[in-house]
Specification:
Radius of gyration: 37 Å
Helix content: 10-25%
CATH superfamily of the largest domain: PDZ domain
Structural class: alpha+beta
Strand order of the largest sheet: 1-2-3-6-5-4
Strand content: 25-35%
Oligomer: single chain
Number of helices: 7
Number of domains: 3
CATH architecture of the largest domain: Roll
Distance between the termini: 134 Å
Largest sheet: 6 strands, antiparallel, barrel
CATH class of the largest domain: Mainly Beta
Number of strands: 23
Length: 380
């Protein structure tokens, strides 16, 4: 039997067959791609998209929009300046110091803000929502409450005062709204809820601020002094501080309650300062800690009773010193039935009263409790 010799790939016939197969394969691929190529090369009309109807806004959205539009004109932007002296030329210059927020208090042009917004400043400018700028004069301030009152001369188109509400009946969980100028971004609205009540916050190199409202509404640097509103658009507090290691909002903000504002601001407008009700006693933090520790009684130890004071008339007794040592006098443990266990708490309890109010003190002397009535006098 004769065997055919194996064909070599270099044989011209084989080459023609391979080439023909390649051409056929290319034509088939081109045939399949032809519709895509035609659609890619040929111009087509742009696809027209229709706008989907949004429908009506939700009720809470309408309420928020209306609240902001009604309240915006009553909120102001405050910028402060300080005087500095050049160390070489001895010339005095005015340089920007800081910014904050505030709100219109009444028709007389009084503006309420935080004390720390204007602290250390020599001048302040108030900018209204319509763009007008006014030089402001300081009327009065209370560092203990972090409240200050400025005054501007608005001749026409006076912005309306913020409607005033109450804070003693606030509930944790109710909605609140903050308007201010965070980071200089003017007239910004944020919202949240009341997350806690009756908080205290230590001041920077000063007394602690008591009875604060805690909220999760975003409050940032620049919001200070702006109003905290309830869902009816009423003032319930002054945004005063945030709790944040970084300085940005961390979900915990604080506001001075409007009940405090209503008590302090009229005094600042009338007298230029807040006259705190007092008992007419002298107290000392270190002495108080030592005496309450020795006696085992949590309260405020009376160090000395001022002569002719309300405390003297009520029969309160201070510390006595003899050869045997120091003997504690009266230790105040409650005011009007509310516990007092520190100096800060005593100040807070007194701050809820007014000069001339008669209060009941529960005091401990020589291990025995008794109640005394005392008429509050003006403090220093």
């Amino acid at each position: 039997m004769q065997i055919e010799p194996k064909r070599n790939l270099s044989d011209p016939f084989i080459k023609r067959v391979v080439a023909l197969g390649a051409v056929v394969g290319a034509l088939m691929l081109l045939w399949k791609a032809l519709p895509w190529l035609e659609s890619w090369n040929s111009p087509s009309a742009p696809q027209i998209r229709t706008v989907t109807a949004r429908g009506d806004l939700a009720a809470d959205e309408k309420n928020t929009i209306e609240l902001f539009e009604k309240s915006r004109d009553s909120v102001v932007y405050i910028s402060t300046a300080a005087l500095v002296r050049d160390a070489w030329t001895r010339n005095v210059f005015s340089v920007p110091k800081g910014t904050g927020s505030g709100f219109i208090w009444d028709e007389a042009g009084h503006v309420v803000t935080n004390f720390h917004v204007i602290a250390g400043a020599n001048a302040a400018t108030v900018k209204l929502a319509d763009g007008r700028d006014y030089k402001a004069a300081l009327v009065g301030a209370s560092r203990e409450h972090d409240i200050a009152v400025l005054k501007i001369g608005v001749g026409f188109k006076r912005p309306p005062p913020v409607p005033v509400g109450t804070s003693h009946d606030l509930k944790v969980g109710q909605k609140v709204y903050a308007i201010g100028n965070p980071f200089g971004l003017d007239w910004t609205l944020t919202n949240g809820i009341v997350s806690a009540l009756d908080r205290s916050l230590a001041g920077e190199d000063g007394p602690s601020v008591e009875h604060l409202i805690q909220t999760d509404a975003a409050i940032n640097p620049g919001n200070s002094g702006g109003p905290l509103l309830d869902s009816a658009g009423r003032l319930i507090g002054i945004n005063t501080a945030i709790y944040s290691p970084s300085g940005a909002s961390a979900g915990i903000g604080f506001a001075v309650p409007v009940d405090t504002v209503m008590r302090v601001v009229p005094e600042l407008i009338k007298n230029g300062k807040y006259i705190r009700p007092a008992l007419g006693i002298e107290i000392d933090q270190q002495v108080n800690e030592r005496l309450t520790e020795l006696t085992g009684t949590a309260g405020v130890a009376v160090l000395r009773v001022q002569p002719g004071s309300a405390a003297e008339k009520a029969g309160l007794v201070g510390v006595s010193i003899s050869e045997e040592g120091i003997t504690a006098g009266d230790i105040i443990v409650a005011l009007n039935g509310k516990e007092v266990d520190s100096l800060q708490q005593l100040f807070a309890r007194l701050d809820d009263q007014e000069v001339g109010d008669v209060v009941k003190l529960k005091v401990v002397r020589d291990g025995r409790q008794r109640e005394v009535e005392i008429s509050l006098q003006p403090g220093n």
